[in-house]
Amino acid sequence: MTMILAIESSCDETACAIVKDGKEILANIVSSQINVHTKFGGVVPEVASRIHVENISTVIMEALEKADIKMEEIDAIAYTLGPGLIGSLHVGVQAAKTLAWLYNKPLVPIHHLTGHIYANAFVSDLQFPLLALVISGGHTELVLMKSDYDFEILGSTRDDAIGEAYDKVARVLGLGYPGGPKIDKIAKEGKANYHLPKPKVDGEYDFSFSGLKTAVLQLIQRENKAGREVKVEDVACSFQETALSMLVEKTKMAVLEYQPKMLVLAGGVAANSRLREMMQEAEKDFEDTKLIIPPLYCCTDNAAMIGASGYIAYKHGLFGDFDASADPSLEMPRDNVNFSQNENHDNI
Ligand code: KG4
Ligand code: ZN
User: Fold this and answer.
1) Is the pTM of this model over 0.90?
2) How high is the pLDDT of residue 337?
3) Domains of the chain
4) 143-159 burial: b if 16+ Cβ within 10 Å, else e
């Protein structure tokens, strides 16, 4: 039996989870700062790190209490090393190191996106080769895994991440932050009546969303100028259909080329109800590829997913040391290589 205590603080959620054998969630405490950042229309990094400092110990204590276990029973401490906001990451990294030092436990540094991918392990054992569509507020990537802990990026966004595009379009439409869930909801009442261009991208599996965001802005300005009423639900629906169809098309192409055993969705935008529907529709045309969609509570940032990824990293001996410092632009590990030895430990 392996018991992992996992810590996540890369953006605006302060989270701690206790995960048994990479599969069973004994506690998953998430303290969201959304209410605070909503007032500013987006995450304010300085405010985020300050709130992490205020909340981190409570969140860790709550997780241990909920799981009804003691620190002595924990086998390792997994924590998000990067990518994310530097000030936010530092808080989780310091908390993890402090616990590891106090209780003499091994440290397992985790790449945040591997957490989003391994959240699917709570649904089903992962089978390889596996294709992951990673869609969050900071990332849009198609990742191929030929085995555990080997992440090959097939393509990524050239500009905005899909979640970022959702948030920006929602702001323009006056829907507030975070935009994803708001657009998801209101788009159900609308029709895709407005024509929006699909940006062309050179890379076979690359994406681009900033042109689409600008097109929405121009559409609203044009309609306002012409004195026509802007139907918010129709704009939301048109944007969503265009953005998601780009994701689905490229994912289908990659499934066809790589014939993975599994296709998994990962990241906050995987919570989108329309995307889930479109992917389930696409799955009907797949020959031997099974679609796995993470449970809603595991799509947006949480620490259980860091525990799931942490369990695999722990099994592979991917331990970190006290020198490894938060890395806002950490790259995904390839071939089980220990990625914790980053160079920039001056700033901790
Ligand atoms: O993975 P996540 O919690 O944080 C990052 O690692 O970035 O993703 C947050 C992003 C935000 O941009 C948010 O608007 C988006 O996920 N999101 C959604 C939905 N729920 C969250 N986007 C579309 N539809 C949703 N239902
Ligand atoms: Zn995330």
Assistant:
1) yes
2) 64
3) 3-118+299-316 (3.30.420.40), 128-293 (3.30.420.40)
4) bbbeeebbbebbbbbbb
